[in-house]
Design a protein that fits this description.
Layout lengths: L3 H25 L3 H9 L3 H18 L1 H4 L20 E4 L2 E15 L6 E12 L1 E11 L3 E9 L18 H37 L1 H16 L2 H10 L7 H31 L3 H8 L4 H9 L4 H24 L11 H6 L4 H6 L5 H23 L6
Antiparallel strand pairs: 1-2, 2-3, 4-5
Helix pairs in contact: 2-14, 3-5, 3-14, 5-6, 5-8, 5-11, 7-8, 8-11, 9-10, 11-14
């Protein structure tokens, strides 16, 4: 008769073996995208960065509602006002809800430079879903509802104001729509150009490959920033803001596709002689079907990683051109346009809050890089 401990051990071994078999069957039966997702979600930094990116694009979509003021709203008497601090404690004690003090500007008797002081006799509680300046959400319907704000007569400049008295936080929120979408649109154009040209170059080879590769080498021999500047300066100054936006996007994509085309060409060269590609050719599949249905899906995860890492480059390119005055121009608002106001040393010394858009650029670029690193690790699902 078997000992109870032997029976228990045998049952535990059976349970563990069964669970292991089920997990193995699930792994081996999963698709490539399922394997990538399972590994990607274990990358905590990449998952956190992904949530940050989603949050930034939500801000870009609902910028009119989330901003406490509209893009055109200005209060000249509060020009270059520093950020207002949120308070929970006043002379009356502790408050359960944050508030801001009113501010008033005075001139320094010697330098005549204007500075601002808190008016502790005026307290303005920060309220949610307040009525403020009217706007058209996505240009479709008119409303005046904002996520947060203060009652009439008060101000809430959490990141300060610019030289025209416009709320910097509101302008940063509005600018995110341009700066973030120009990266996606630019990468989409680069994706089309790079994928198409890279596949043609790698699959057909011969004089077509030589011609394409020599053209890519000529384009890559030019320094990126001077070339971007030259192309952006060629845009007619009479263009509308929308035309300038599309023009800058095309300019940024003009160089961005070359790296992807080289990567796609290399992958196609290594895969076009594989057995599955040869078998498809022998059964009568067209060259276009072999490229689009057999070769490209085999390294699509690598392409997605490359595109994810290319988005920050597009955002930095637009920011650099706008900062230099060769990209987007007012009344269009982007993070680069906002940074153009902080070009002189005086602004950095006396109004450092004008450099706040730099923080949003840094956060966005780091978030995309972390997501790209996580996708790069997850693209090889069987790696330990």
């Amino acid at each position: 008769m078997a000992e109870p401990s032997d029976v228990l051990a045998k049952e535990l071994q059976t349970d563990v073996t069964g669970v292991g078999d089920e997990e193995d069957a699930e792994v081996y039966g999963a698709s490539q995208w399922q394997l990538i997702w399972w590994k990607f979600r274990k990358h905590r930094m990449a998952m956190t960065a992904g949530l940050v990116i989603i949050g930034l694009y939500i801000v870009a979509v609902f910028c009119e509602f989330l901003a406490p003021y509209t893009l055109e709203y200005r209060q000249v008497k509060y020009a270059l006002a520093p950020p207002q601090r949120l308070h929970l404690v006043s002379d009356e004690g502790i408050h359960l809800w944050p508030f801001v003090y009113g501010i008033w500007g005075v001139r320094h008797p010697e330098t005549l430079r204007k500075f601002y002081l808190d008016d502790r006799s005026r307290k303005y509680p920060v309220r949610l879903f307040v009525r403020g300046e009217p706007y058209r959400f996505w240009g479709l319907f008119k409303t005046d509802l904002h996520l947060f704000g203060v009652d009439g007569g008060g101000t809430i400049f959490l990141l300060g104001t610019d030289h025209l008295g416009r709320d910097l936080l509101s302008r940063i929120i509005y600018g995110s729509r341009i700066s973030l979408t120009i990266g996606l649109v630019g990468v989409a154009l680069s994706f089309v150009f790079g994928l198409l040209i890279g596949v043609i170059s790698g699959y057909y080879g011969g004089w077509i490959d030589n011609l394409i590769q020599r053209g890519i080498e000529i384009l890559r021999s030019f320094p990126s920033i001077p070339l971007w500047m030259a192309l952006a300066a060629a845009l007619p100054p009479s263009w509308s803001p929308l035309q300038i936006y599309m023009g800058i996007t095309v300019v940024l994509s003009f160089i961005g596709w070359t790296g992807l085309a080289r990567q796609v060409r290399g992958k196609i060269l290594s895969l076009r002689e594989e057995d599955f590609a040869t078998a498809a050719l022998l059964v009568g599949a067209s060259r276009w079907r072999i490229m689009t249905r057999h070769l490209l899906p085999s390294f699509m995860s690598h392409i997605i990683v490359s595109l994810t890492l290319a988005v920050p480059g597009m955002i930095l390119g637009e920011t650099s051109l706008s900062f230099l005055g060769l990209g987007l121009r007012p009344p269009v608002t982007s993070w680069g346009v906002l940074l153009k106001e902080a070009q002189n040393v005086q602004a950095v010394a006396f109004q450092p809050w004008l450099l706040t858009p730099v923080l949003f650029v840094i956060i966005t670029v780091l978030a995309f890089n972390f997501v790209g690193d996580g996708l790069r690790d997850a693209a090889d699902p069987y790696a330990r």
